[in-house]
Amino acid sequence: MKVGLEVHQQLATGKLFCACPSELTEEVLHRFSRRLRAAQGENRAVDAAAALQASRHLVYQYEATPSDCLVDMDEEPPHPLSGPALDTALTMALLLGARPVDEVEIMRKIVVDGSNTSGFQRTALIATGGSIEAGGRRYGIETICLEEDAARKVGETADGVTYRLDRLGIPLIEIATAPEITNGREAREVAEEIGALLRATGRVRRGIGTIREDLNVSTDGGRRIEIKGVQELRLMHEYADREVHRQQLLLQVRDRLRERSAVVPTPSFRDVTAAVGDLSSGPLAHTADRGHVVLALALPKFAGLLRSFDDSDERLGRELADQARSAGLKGLLHSDELPGHGVPAGSVEAVRAALGLGPEDAFALVVDRSRQRAEAALQRVAARAAAALDGVPGETRDPLPDGRTRFSRPLPGRDRMYPETDVPPVPITSEHLEHLRRHLPERPGTTRARLVREYGLADEVARQLVASGDVDELDQLVRRGRGASLAARLLTQDLPAALGSVGEAPRRPVSLAELDAVLQGSESGRYGKEGIPLVLHHLLTGAPSVEAAVAKAGFTGAALDDLDPLADRVVRGNAAMVRERGEGAFSALMGDLMREVRGRRDGKEVAAALRRAIDRLRAESVP
Asked: Which of 325, 534, 571, 576 is the most exposed, fewest CB within 10 Å of its CB?
């Protein structure tokens, strides 16, 4: 198993080729539509991935927002390359020990899936070489690039896609590792370390979708597969390991096809609408009444090889169905899963007879209102079946939420690249690099050690702070006089918990000054640290100030100086339970007492008061 990693991180430096902000918005100013077609690259050939996308003949609608300008709409030439974005990429190159190029040349990368209004993405090589250490090992860095992000997809139909332009043009740093990672766990460790180094620059965007990873995976006998756009680090090992399993299954299918002396299927299709008959249920139900056509493709020697060998989620039939989906269909049916899906045994035999199939032969069925689209889908299915004779085709795949992946498009190649003529090259001088070297940020490993040494934090807490990019906030809170331990807890536990309790995008952000005031309220005794998440929740949901959030949380009264009377009242109100259960009554009463305290005192103090009250009651009961 070999894994290479590509990390894409958005920068908070404004857009790459204009002065627009790198902020997302839901405000739409106007809309326009375009069609895109594949063009020749610098080698005078059309890229396979671009050709496949162009063959769908989709119409793309774009939503322009306040974060866009004529550059994003491809109605104005791009402005010069963003200096802050370039400096951030060069800083990362120096931190990784890579060699910056002498001159940055902007290239165009053909992309016709609609995510770029121009039909191409601008990208530039910034540095080569370098390395990063993770988990006690050192991994090579092959390239560091700077490119513009694509528009974000907000809607899709069978005939077109709708994109919002606010994300288009946001700078992305792309860091590609050498294929030296050997398992999914290592891939996650390397991704986390690169992410921590990126956040150390202080110029990256934060939040869901601002950093994405591509996994390039291969195994013995297989080919490189690019899993595009992984955002869940916790699933990274599963994507990598499942891809290896998928390739191994496809290699088994190849070997069995060769044992049967299978040949490349002839891409000829037969109309079997009449043979299927008038079905009452399933995807082929009432085909004639709906004006749909059912086409069949013969797959000689494929019988029994379209389903899984080991009851896993991976099977060749799913690979064929993905090809049908890429042509705009919902999927297909194949003979290894029939009879079933509303298709009886009689209809299966009628199709087999119409195709002249033998016992080792299989078939695939597609249904659509457009015969042309159905034939285009079976063309792709036939090509994918032919590729099964060779094992594993190289391709780009999309990650799914359950850890599986799905075919997206063929692997792109050099045929999609050509020079950008509207942006001048940018020389990189030794003086510029020396200036950046003198101002390099603290490395993640150094930062973790400093947090443990200076603030007395546990190593795991230090790792969480570095991984989340909250070290600067911690340093500022400590400089304002807050306790490092409580501030670290707020950043790593309380604030994430409060964000989770909101359930949707918060109505407003919480400033550093407000975080400081929340901590000050706890340290002064107005409420315990258990009350901090509740105050933060009210801030995130619209409270105009910390005082207002404290009032909504119910912490406006005087602090509870003496917990013992309150604990005695709770214990004596449940005296029978205490006498019956003894120490076993503690957990139940602790919940009651915490509700009485309502976060105004820390849990440890409440627990200590409760134990004292229980001991006093039990002592009174002793004769």
From this structure: 576
